[in-house]
């Protein structure tokens, strides 16, 4: 038996992000604002080639670009 998130075509990390956002949105106003601030992340990554670091890119932007390419293909 497969997990529902896997059957829906989501990665486990994406499933957790969606579940966390749903929980944060269900909180009362004062707690929700604090929780939403904690939920915002700015992750960056770089590819290393031949011992040199490449350009640092925002992870969210890169994921959006990949998703857009996959949808148009």
TrEMBL record:
Which SUPFAM superfamilies does the entry mention?
Epsilon subunit of mitochondrial F1F0-ATP synthase
Transmembrane regions: none
Where do the coiled-coil regions begin and end? Answer: none
Q: Which family does it belong to?
A: Belongs to the eukaryotic ATPase epsilon family.
Under which name does UniProt file this protein? Mitochondrial ATP synthase epsilon chain domain-containing protein
Q: Which organism is it from?
A: Sporothrix eucalyptigena
């Amino acid at each position: 038996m497969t997990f529902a998130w896997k059957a829906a075509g989501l990665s486990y990390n994406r499933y957790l992000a969606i579940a966390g956002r749903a929980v944060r949105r269900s909180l009362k106003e004062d707690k929700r604002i604090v929780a939403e601030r904690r939920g915002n992340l700015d992750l960056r990554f770089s590819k290393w080639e031949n011992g040199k670091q490449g350009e640092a890119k925002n992870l969210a932007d890169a994921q959006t670009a990949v998703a857009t390419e996959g949808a148009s293909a």
